[in-house]
Amino acid sequence: MARKVLVLGEVRDGLLRNVSFEAVAAGKTAAEGGEVIGVLIGDSVSALTQGMIHYGADRVVTVEDEKLKQYTSDGFSQALMAVINSESPEGLIFGHTALGKDLAPKIAAKMESGLISDVTSLEEAGGNLVFTRPIYSGKAFEKKIVTDGILFATIRPNNIAPLEKDESRSGDVTSVSAEIKELRTIIKEVVRKASEGVDLSEAKVIIAGGRGVKSEEGFEPLKELAAVLNGAVGASRGACDADYCDYSLQIGQTGKVVTPDLYIACGISGAIQHLAGMSNSKVIVAINKDPEANIFKVADYGIVGDLFEVVPMLTEEFKKLKVNA
Amino acid sequence: MNIYVLMKRTFDTEEKITISGGKINEDGAEFIINPYDEYAIEEAIQVRDAQGGEVTVVSVGTEEAEKQLRTALAMGVDKAVLINTEDDLEDGDPFTTAKILSEYLKDKDADLIIGGNVAIDGGSGQVGPRVAELLGITYVTTITKLEISGSSATVVRDVEGDSEVIETSLPLLVTAQQGLNEPRYPSLPGIMKAKKKPLDELELDDLGLDEDDVEAKTKTIEIYLPPKKEAGKVLEGELEDQVKELVNLLHTESKVV
């Protein structure tokens, strides 16, 4: 059944986030031959509309207003509802990002609709659009369908491949005006802690440290390795509880669930709660002094050794590889 | 201050997940308060202790959630309410839960509602914002700090590792992120007192709802376990050679670098 699907693009530091293109690809699947419309909301987004089209959107609708410079649930929901009211879509796809997680349930409540969150794949099967998502932090998966109302899903970054970029594609760009009023939350300040590196949820490579890292300074060699691989640094709960790093780096059942291409666990024993947060990574490397550590059971490759010896050596080897590449 | 906490009973994080008859096997499993809801309970108690007022913890579920509600009472919550859906509902989704909670809360004049930002079982993270929207109040999700002064609130929100400092006002719904506080353990006197605190039980009827009003909008058609990972390869030999081999394997065999 062909459907009209709206896909919300997301802007960070003046660029479209990768998850926007993944959402367009998901939107294409959900549309089943129908129209895919990119939606961009902000104070100045016109320059970014072609990106959505090059990655597969048929056309783009923008809502621009000074009050939309920063994300607020009130502002963005008013903007998005204006687009929904003018387009009457049959499907909605957002990224399962900080913004998507905050905004999607509000929109779903406004529309009295269902919402399938944190989707890692979707496909047409037996006349239904079937959404797959992790439950119990990835210890199990469920397949869900929508039984009533609009198809609405948020997709987890890094799981659905974007379509090939095609710069010859073109499409209409229109704007919808929305009266943005009564913003009940005001953002006074943004403290950028994540700016040091790549965002964990979208990182292709994650170097994670556990108790074995021993101190805040102990994360330095991990950061150096992450820098060489253009990756992000993460941590186990043990490392966070011991104050070696900020809780925002925590990966596990409480904390972030990540699925990078490469996960290098350094000095992490591999408690079941941590494994839940990372065991669906494509390739896992474990570095640990204890050959009996649980982490080796989920690792594709393991090195038994002191991370403070192994990690700097790895950094050097990867540097050589980059030079030769 | 009239404070409500939204709580869910979930599997203990230590539990292995198995499936029987197409469902998650609950036999013999340990259950706990959803860890993020524990932060919510702790925060509610701290706000009450600083500002005065009363904390009520609410859970939608079955009779079995009484144990977790008692634990919340033992931590210091004043009252507990179980909305028991056992006889009325077979399956629900976040639409269902949010609708029930908002019907319960709509005439309670809550100044502050706190929930966890996500439950570690279903993992949708929808209920908090949905409830706020249905009640017509403001919300801030994934908070790591809450300061209330009169009817205004300053909240720090975790946004993928960055922090936003947000000013807003009551009534307000917030969802707790890790780092918000350090939840207390119930004390022995707390556990004794909890036995005498009120734990009310309601059904959909009592909220003027019937099954159709809260019928789920989505349906789970299959639950399965991820494929078991094959045991990996632990490298051998001199450390230096292992490192070289590893880089080579990542580059040529698994092609991730």
Describe the structure.
The complex is a heterodimer of chains A (325) and B (257). By secondary structure, chain A is an alpha/beta fold. Chain A has helices at 18-31, 49-54, 73-87, 98-111, 220-228, 237-241, 272-278, 295-298, 307-324; strands at 5-8, 11-12, 15-16, 36-42, 59-64, 91-95, 116-119, 121-125, 128-135, 140-146, 151-155, 173-175, 186-191, 205-209, 232-235, 262-266, 283-288, 301-304. With 257 residues, chain B is of the alpha/beta class. Chain B has 6 helices and 15 strands. Chain B is globular. In chain B, strand 3 and strand 4 form a beta hairpin. At the A-B interface, helix 4, strand 7, strand 9, strand 10 and strand 13 of A face helix 3, helix 4, strand 9, strand 10 and strand 11 of B. Strand 13 of chain A pairs antiparallel with strand 11 of chain B, so a sheet runs across the interface.
What is the overall number of helices of chain B?
A: 6
* Poorly predicted parts of chain B: none
Which structural class do you get from the secondary structure elements of chain B? alpha/beta
Task: Average the pLDDT over all residues of chain B and give the rounded result.
Answer: 95
Q: Outline the low-pLDDT stretches of chain A.
A: none
Biggest interface goes to: A-B, 95 and 80 residues
H/E series of chain B, N to C? EEEEEHEHEHEHEEEEHEEEH
Class computed from helices, strands and strand pairing of chain A = alpha/beta
Question: Helical proportion of chain A?
Answer: 25-40%
Distance between the termini of chain A: 47 Å
CA-to-CA gap between the ends of chain B? Answer: 55 Å
- Mean of residue pLDDT of chain A? 94
- In what order do the strands lie side by side in the largest sheet of chain A? 7-11-6-1-4-5-12
